């Protein structure tokens, strides 16, 4: 009888992780990335669009230098046609780092090869970054520029909606109103237009403004749909007006609109905000009665309700129930439980869940990394902060600048200058700017201990990096004359 051997063939997920780590770890811009891609990416990788999409997704979530991701995407173009998902992911990566010149180069290249990939979502990705980082006029100019480029198609209400969404996403409702006033005669609005604006007012947190606009919608002859009600229900839930949210649900059903899974999820979350766990559980049980199937979002909402009422035991039990039903935990699941354990349990509970997360090889998003790093460092456990840092690095991620600030400060205060220096050096080597706070803390400690050689090394690396990165924004460090 032959004994089955465990397969040594790497899984797709392990290969995605391996390639992502290679790209993240590659020194930038000291050495070219192309030879590494040519060596490491096999024909099986380059013939599978989903593999490239997965690697790009990991690079995006891991905050890896966007120019590396762009090089991967460009390299893949010589082997297979670009997929919509890989193009949009690359576009998100490049625009997030503020490299708008590279953004337009990418758009022009794709327009020449496969113009159908430049969709309304592509337009939204670009315009949202203009609305966030540039002026109102520059955002409108970007819209005009895209219209001039895409001469093969007539801009209509969908493109108009993308422009509106850019301002509404940034809660710039004055600007959104101005765009609506300027263009609504050229692009007759549809129900999606009105819902985008309604969503913008909801995100601004002004219930009165949202309701005033809702009534304006009605006066214009627009009939509310499920999306309209979901937006309004969410607004009331987040403000703690749970009774009003339930009233809207009843009004919705009276208008022959059936609540969706999103509606029920929002209401469960709203019950948690109102500290009404009993109602949250009743709504959760109502899902199966309505012939709907609970997903990770529904469970997350109920876990959040449990955490808000300090019922952490129920939250952990719900995580176990998700596993039993084959519903995977996502970042919201972990972030919600970490938040509750941090506030209501302490180090023991946080560490237990942290170990569970690591054992499952789950890679948390950066807001969760920052929250954990802050908790560890503020509670005298910089060793756990360093462990978390190394875990994320091993997964091919480059932790957010806030996490680096927290860790470097904690390590320096405990005399671990070498470890602090190596963490900051790792970020710069991988092509990311450190934030100024963490850098200045390390600079001060290195100067006081006479380790000027390390400062000079960082100076040289930073100056080389600044030749290829766009101008810094926010807290990112810019050091044209950092040292004498």
TrEMBL record:
Pfam families for the chain: PPR (PF01535), PPR_2 (PF13041)
InterPro entries, A to Z: PPR_rpt, TPR-like_helical_dom_sf
Family in the record: Belongs to the PPR family. P subfamily.
Ranges occupied by PPR repeats: 190-224, 225-259, 295-329, 365-399, 400-434
Segments forming a coiled coil: none
Entry keyword set: Repeat
Keyword check for Repeat: yes
Keyword Repeat: yes
Descriptive protein name: Pentatricopeptide repeat-containing protein
